[in-house]
What we know:
Rossmann fold; 5-stranded parallel β-sheet; 10 helices; binds adenosine-5'-diphosphate
Amino acid sequence: MKKNLFIAFEGIDGSGKSTQVKLLAQKLEKQGHKVYCTFEPTDSAIGVLIRKIFSHKMEGDHRTIAGLFVADRLDHLLNSNYGILKKLEEGYTVITDRYYFSSYAYHGAHMDMDWVIQANALSAELLRPDLNIFIDISPEESMHRINKGRENIEMYETLDNLKKVQQLYFEAFEKLNDKEKVCIINGEGNEDLIAEDVWENIQKIQ
Ligand code: ADP
Ligand code: TYD
């Protein structure tokens, strides 16, 4: 397997991304890889601002949020302490829970997706994932998991919005199929079986 991969997990809310990030990291570490797991929105200053808007503690228009994610992502890549580019240079395999396809799908629900893709062009130029792994669950299953596990429902977590976001993920994969490596994995089975599916796709990376 190629060393030093950059893998992005994608999916609608509650699809099991963070569960699968953890399971993949464990497998890679067992094989002797140094692994750095990370996520967006980040926990840096810009990410914290985004989370305040999501939890309704601060006002923010959808277009403002899209812009904040552009900045959060660039900091996530370029920061000299915790930036992904630095981690890759240090020999880590980096796994991120969400990257720019999240922006295309979530903000594409409120504005022109091409604008969102263009606004993130610098991130794509700096670093494309070796593989985007989309964990696919139905919006109904997503709502079921969210309602079970949380007290507060965030801004984008409604059934209608998640249906739209799921559809926009597929539109974005189609639109960028000549540039991006994407695999789609059924996320509704047992988590260990999903992890095996993820693992098989990781082995195929050239
Ligand atoms: P995400 O990071 O995409 O929001 P999580 O990994 O946090 O998703 O999972 C959301 C919820 O669904 C958690 O309560 C988790 O335990 C549960 N979960 C994760 N994977 C599965 C699965 N394959 N089947 C059923 N429930 C799952
Ligand atoms: P996250 O904490 O990953 O939520 P979950 O664990 O439920 O998937 O992400 C928080 C929210 O941020 C989620 O609703 C998706 C949204 N989001 C965007 O709207 N744009 C983006 O670019 C990213 C990375 C996330």
